[in-house]
Structures are given as structure tokens and as C-alpha cells.
Predict the structure.
Amino acid sequence: MSLPTASKVLFGGDYNPEQWPEQVWEEDYRLFDAARIDTVTLGVFDWALTQPAENVYDFTLLDRIVDRAEAEGRNICLATGTGAHPPWLARAYPQVCRTDFEGRRHRFGQRHNSCPSSPVFRRLSAELARRVARRYAGRPAVVAWHVGNEYGGACYCELCGTAFRGWLRDRYGSLAALNTAWYTTFWAHTFTDWGEIEPPSALTEHWRGPDHTAFPGITLDYLRFMSDAMLANFRDEKAAIRESSPDLPVTTNFMGMYRPIDYHRWAPHLDFASWDNYPPDDTSQARMAFTHDLMRGLKDGAPFWLMEQTPSVTACRDVNPLKRPGLLRLWSWQAVAHGADAVLFFQLRASRGASEKYHGAVIGHAGRQDTRVFREVAELGAEFDRLGDAVLGARTPARVALLFDWDSWWALDISDGPSRLVRYQQVVLGYHRALWDAGVDLDVVAVTADLSGYDVVLAPALHMIKGDVAERLAAVARRGGSVLTTFLSGRVDENDNAFLTDVPGPLGPLMGVRIDEWDARGPEVVNPVRLRSGDHRLEVESRLIFELVIPTSAEVIGSYLADFYAGTPAVTRNAFGAGHGWYVAAGLDQAGVSWVVRRVLERHQLLGPYPDVPDLETAVRVGPDGDRLHFLLNHRDEAVEVAASVDGLDLLTGDRIEAGRRLCLDPYAVLVIRADPTG
Ligand code: GLA
Ligand code: ZN
């Protein structure tokens, strides 16, 4: 099962009519028509309404809401409503409330407030999902189920402790295996009874917070367990839904690069991926592209839904900047360019009270339609209407893969040494930025992904080597591809224990280097690196981490220029089979990363059409019938002129485009060109 069926890019968002009298609904639908909003996500936080007491279910209001949406011809993405539990539940069963990292049992409040291991929570959340599905499954307007909301919020209670011990028994089978995996001879930790095992928290293994642990192996397993525990909640609800709704797709809204949950472990259980895009600032174009690709990678490249984005401002940050005119459109098309088949907002009408009353909405408190934001939403809605089904189901033809691994992220971020300043996410984003600037289509995939279709695989900071990933990377190079990895890769096995071999462990043969020593310095210390390959030369800076490389078979591409290791290799390339293994041993600056990545891409002729025009993004999607759609997104606030790279039709204006002809792109311009079929 995959995405909900549709005949165009679905357009709409979270809608909470339960917060308003029915006259307002009238007005809402008139405005939805004006903005061509065809899809509403309903009931995300309705638990206290649909189940006002343990033995009372009351769907009167939700019935009216669903009836109305259906009568108005909208698609409904229907939530189970378990994103926050109701006050009566917390009062009757304090066990449903989370215990935090500091060991404090919470009382009723906020949301993400449930203990995932609480049998009461599990029973009642599944029961609610069961009843919602039973009641509305037959309704033609309902196109998808939305379980929970933005899963997150770790718990450290006794119930979770017990569940953790059960999870560990399944994983290790015996205490002997667990003691070996956790390396418990260190600091007198040998466990002699399962009951001795505690969740790693501020009261046990941690100091200074969640990233500082005496036993990374224990902390890693708790992260995995917690991710699985919340997944079990999702699966409880999904199973309950399936009893009466065998065919409708089920999803939950992810949060992109969200560290606490390993979305790769979740992905097989979702029918389609969806996520909420709230970038940290308005210079996050590359990061958003990365995250869209990461989310698309969850389901083997199948399209996803952009479940939420604000049309204008967020409210939860200390400072909440307004999206500049044109960005709502540009960023929505960026999502589509990277694989979204639905573009939805949070929210359609602004809340009047509580913490999100200043959060942006399609319809503000005054209910006007003559606002800039509403106009931009309506114009975008009209564009999606014009586009029709052209992108639906279309896939990204990527020949480059970027590996992203939650385990490596966790292991590196919680590691004592070599440096707390080297952050997994920043390293990966730096390499992605280089790919993005070069204009190459790429997939962001798990280490378990099939790599046989890629010419280039980047595996920055692949700290942990699991399963057969080293062999599969070697296979990419053997058949002529290029594999790149960096400092702090190939260091530990899946239990976070160091390999008893030269660094980079199982990646050593492919990389043709050996690392005996490494140096870490504060951000003020720069070691210049001279890069050289063919006619390309550049001097760049490196910071934070400097591994000392002894080539075993690799050639030197870049060398340190300072310190006692001046003149030794900082970047190498190893001929391996018909391809190469590239090793970047230093924390190169962005110019250095880009230089190396471009050398890799050039070998495979993979640079995009405009690699030297900053912030002009290109992306391609190929439809089920072979149509090639070229997206051109100008992220600059100034116009830019480039030569068209294909013959085709601009689907938004109907203009003919001819390859080689000048295209003048306005600030924040979007072009969707359907290339003419070739030959
Ligand atoms: C998240 C949630 C929504 C809302 C928005 C506000 O994405 O899912 O309920 O709180 O954030 O930005
Ligand atoms: Zn708990």
C-alpha cells in the first residue's frame, strides 16, 4: 500500500473547527474554495472531546466536522487524536504521564505527555484509534489515517525500565552477551541479574545531560528501545485501524532530522511518509532539500506528503521571523521538487487562544481573505490546480546517495572524545551542501539501502559500521563508483565498541589508509590544507578534527600545512577495483568540502546544469509514464539569468522553453519544465 489516490497535488492542512462555532465553519469553507484547498487534516488533538471519560465515547462533534468536510467535497486526513492525552486519563492513571530524564514523574499537562510503555495508555490509545476507524472507515472523503502527532518525548519510568529489560532480553538473549556488548568490566558494571539494569538517565549513567554518559552502549540501546517503544504505540493504533480499514494508507507526521527517533526503524510500518517542515531560519534551503530527500528515502524514493508547514510564522521560537513574500510558494514547490505529492499547512485557521495563537495560518483571527498570506496561498492553490497530476508518483532519478544513520548520529553525539564540537548532523549537512550547490539529484538513504544503482556514495562520519555496509560500499567502488568517507568513520561496531584493527576499521581496504592518531582543537585553531588534483588546486582551512593519515595504498590529494604533521595527508583517494575510495581526514571548511565533492562528481559527469550559480536549485522528477519534470528554483532575492538546459514546456505558464535560450528568473522564481521526450 502506498499513497492516497489523488488527481493533483493535495493542498490544505490541519483544520480545527472544534475550536469554533459552526458559523465560522461556513466562512472557512468559502475561503477554502477561494484558496482551492481540497484536503483537511482533522481531529489531531481531539481525545478529550471524543472520549470525555473512560467509558464514554462521544463522536457528536467529530461527526459534524467530518460530515461537513465531506459535504464540502474535501479529502480528509483523519487523525486518531492521540497526540495528547486528556486530563481525566492522567488523573485516573498517573502511570500514563511521562517520567523525564531527571527522574521527575510529570503530572497532567502539555502534549507528547504519554509514557509509551504504560499498558493503560497503550490500551486506550489503540481503543480510540479502533473506534475512530470503525466509525469513519467507510466514508469516501477519508483518504488517509494520521496516527498520533509528531511522536517524541522519552520516558524513564519504572514501566519503561521493565520494558527496556524485556527489550534487552530479546536483543541479547543472555546477560553474558549483554555484558560483553556493554563492556561492563569497565567501572564494575557486570550485571548478574536483569533486574539490576536501570534506564540511563541523570540518576544513573549520565552527567551534564543526555549526551554525557559513562556507558554509550547502554545509552545507545535506550535510544533504540525508546524509538521502538513509541513505534509500538504507532503499531498498536495501526493494527486497531486495520480491523475496519484494510486499505486506507496510514501515516504519522515525522519531523525530518529529529534525533530521538530512528525513522529508518519506523519506515517499514508506515504506508507513506509525511513530515512537518519548520526550518530554523530563511537561509535553510539546502537543509530543507536534504530533509525532503531524507524523508523520501524512508520509503525507497516513493513520494511523501508535506504534512505541515507554516504559511507565515511559527510561534514556538524565541523570535519568529515572517516568511518573506514568495517564500511560501518557493518552499512549497521545493517540497514538490523533492518528492512531495501533497502540500499542507499548519494551520488553516489560527487558534484564538493557548500557546499557538500567534502561529501563522491561512486564515487569521480577522477571517480576512484580502491578506498577503491568503493571497499567496490562493495563488499557489491555483498553480497546483493547473499542474494537475503531472508530478504524482514521479520519482527522483538519483545516481548519488548520501548515507544517513541514526546510530552513527547517536554514537558520535554521545561520545567522549575526540571532540564534542564535531557534530554528526553538521558534518553530513556540509557534504550535502556541496552536493546541493553542485546541483545534483541525490537520495538520502539508510546504511541498509541497496547501493547497487549509485555511481557515487557519500558516507560522511559513518562512525558505526553495521551489517554488511562496508562490503556494499566496497562493491560500489569495485564496479567503478566512487565512495567518500571522512574522519571518525569506521570506528565502532553496532555496540559502540572499537574495532580491534587499524582505523577506519572495515573501511580500511577501500580507503587504502591507516589512522594511528588524531588531534582535536578548538574552533580558533586552523590548519590550512592544500588540495591538488589534475589542474585543480586550492588552499582551504580545516578545523576541529585532524586525523593523521598513513596511506597504505591511497594517493594524496590534500596535505596539512601546519603543526607537527605539516606535509602529511589530509585527503586521499584510493584506486579500488574500477573505482575509488576517498578519505577526508580533516574538518575541511565548506570550500574544501565542495572542492573534494566536485572532484568526485566530475569523474561521473554528475554536476548539475548550473553548478556555479549560487542558490539556484535544480531537481528532476520522472513520472510513471517517463515524463521528465525539471524544477528550477531561484532561492535568491534577486533575479538571475541562465541558459535553459532542456527543451520543453513550462507547466506553470504554458511557455515553450528551448535549450540554450536565456531564462530570466525573478527573485524566488519557480519553473516546472516538462522536458520534450528525446529520440
Ligand atoms: C507541529 C505540530 C502542530 C503545531 C505546529 C506548530 O508541527 O504538529 O500541532 O504545534 O508544530 O508549528
Ligand atoms: Zn514510561
